Amino acid sequence: MRRRVKRPVTLAGIKFDALISQDEVFQAQVPDYPVESGYKVHDGVLPDALSINTTLYLTNTPVTWKHQIGVSRTRVKTVEARLRQIFWDREPVTYATSDRTYDNMVIESMTISKTEEDGYARKIPITLKQVEVTATRTGVIPDSYVRGGQTEASAGTASVSSDSTGVASASSAAQAQEQAKSQENASILYKAGKGLGLIS
């Protein structure tokens, strides 16, 4: 006995006449190197994102879901344009069948072809890949991690100022310290030169 389908297949809210075929593809990267005894094998296996290969049927005059979809002479053209836009937008969409819903699906490939056999109808093969969406979390760093040196004194902050032209310059304290060093070095050289009789 054939199971009754309760709802049409949809992609990004677009209702299709029929689902011709569908394959769920599960793949994983399995290590080629030997696994050490006692090591958990699944830690080295990296599952790839879920892929779905589906072929959807589209017409201007749907029969199966006519009461939901309606009849329009431009329906195929409109849906084709919508599918192209979804592909180029590269945004995750929802793909739903009569028995399952898949979220965060991106169109990886799609073929829109016209044949004499199908006329105005379209059989559209689409490959979807599921994208894992994660949330960003912000952590608080304890004060003990922002101290430097053996004394754990505060590492301090960089000090910069801005002149009238808006160009950042070094702090006046650093400049004064550098100038004092230059004067001290000059004084030492002067005394040494005078002691050697080089300076009268």
Number of strands: 13
Biggest pleated sheet: 7 strands, antiparallel
**CATH arch. level architecture of the largest domain:** Beta Barrel
Shape assignment: elongated
* Cross-sheet strand order for the largest sheet: 2-1-7-8-9-6-3
Write the topology of this structure.
Blueprint: E1 10-11, E2 14-15, E3 18-25, E4 28-29, E5 46-47, E6 51-58, H1 66-69, H2 75-89, E7 93-96, E8 101-110, E9 122-130, E10 147-148, E11 153-154, E12 160-162, E13 168-170, H3 172-195
Antiparallel strand pairs: 1-2, 1-7, 3-6, 4-5, 6-9, 7-8, 8-9, 10-11, 12-13
Brief digest:
With 200 residues, the chain is α+β, with helices and mostly antiparallel strands. 22% of the residues lie in helices and 28% in strands.
Task: Describe this entry's structure for a reader.
The structure is a single chain. The chain has about 200 residues and is of the alpha+beta class. It folds into two domains: about 10-35 and about 40-130, Beta Barrel (Elongation Factor Tu (Ef-tu), domain 3), CATH 2.40.30; about 170-200. Helix content is about 20%, strand content about 30%. It has three helices and 13 strands. The strands form four sheets. Strands 2-1-7-8-9-6-3 form a seven-stranded antiparallel sheet, with helices on one face. A two-stranded antiparallel sheet has the order 4-5. A hairpin with a 5-residue loop joins strand 12 and strand 13.
